[in-house]
Amino acid sequence: MTLSTLALVALFVRDVFSQQSPGAADFLRFGCSQLVVERADPLVTPGLNPSPHTHQIVGGNSFNITMDPYTIDPPKQSTCTSCIYKEDFSNYWTASIYFQSPENGTFKKVPQMANGRQNRTLLEQDGGLTVYYMRPFSGSNKKTTAMKPGFRMFAGDPALRSKTGTYPGICHRCLSKADRLMGGNGAPCDSKDTAAFPSSPCPGGIRATIIFPSCWDGKNLDSPDHRSHVAYAPGSGALAGDKCPSTHPVRIPQVMYEIMFDTSGFADPKYYKNGKQPLVYSFGDATGYGAHGDYLFGWEGDALQRGMDALGNKCGSEDCTSALKIQSGNDAIACTKAQMAKEDVGSNNWLKELPGGATVTFE
């Protein structure tokens, strides 16, 4: 995506949860441009260079293979962030998607694209992903407590290959051409979405969604599985109300990712026959059920708490300049870093195998 295709105005976004009518002041929503695409995962495989599979990473440029909380302080050690909010040096990453040619089995990385606003313009990001920080959409108590330095968590399960055991809030939406600039309307992970990859061509792209837990035990910044210290709030899905279980009593801002994959070049119906589809995650998952995301907190000072506290008071999803500092889209896009282990990840060339050699599995 070239800069000429990006909207070069302030960040004004649309309410994607129109079916739930939460109001514009219930969440922050902003774009983060691509920092780097590489085989690195300091949460699951810290210190391993390269890690087993490719990730797309955004946020502060202090990102490295360890992100040791005792030696790395992202706000102090980052010199820039690829996110639109200048005080957010957190890191956010997910697995990449590849197209596998039915003809010869080679792989090409599916490009990412900027997300859309309600006014049918694009967010200021070159690829990357869209980040949400949400407070409860229901209930009388909407207060949230921002995470602490060193906090990190994981959502999803890369080992899943069937609907059994799938996580709430991990889903894919198939977009038509008409949906492209809107990014798709409606609540995330509703009836329009599937936990698996779409089974038909998506000429407007795929909107992948990852919703993280919203309750914390209040003690541990991490846990061995990167999940046990957090929990989803009670409810029928990932987006719950203002209650938390007694084991995890602290309600934190609920983090959500939207990743826009440009599948327009891979939407020929001939690729979708006999119940098969040609997409595969970088760790070898051809079902889509194993989609997952990693989060590492890195907001400067009390910035995130200020932003969440200001929601509803001249601060909402479209603009929180009353509480937070916004940088230009050009500055966010310019924040990049080199791969730590240089390799061709298939952005421009066809690869004989997935980076890291992951085996493609269908079940």
From TrEMBL:
Organism: Aaosphaeria arxii CBS 175.79
Protein name according to UniProt: DUF1996 domain-containing protein
Ranges where the DUF1996 domain occurs: 41-299
One protein family per Pfam: DUF1996
PANTHER family: DUF1996 DOMAIN-CONTAINING PROTEIN (PTHR43662:SF2), PTHR43662
Superkingdom: Eukaryota
Annotated signal sequence range: 1-18
This protein's UniProt keywords: Signal
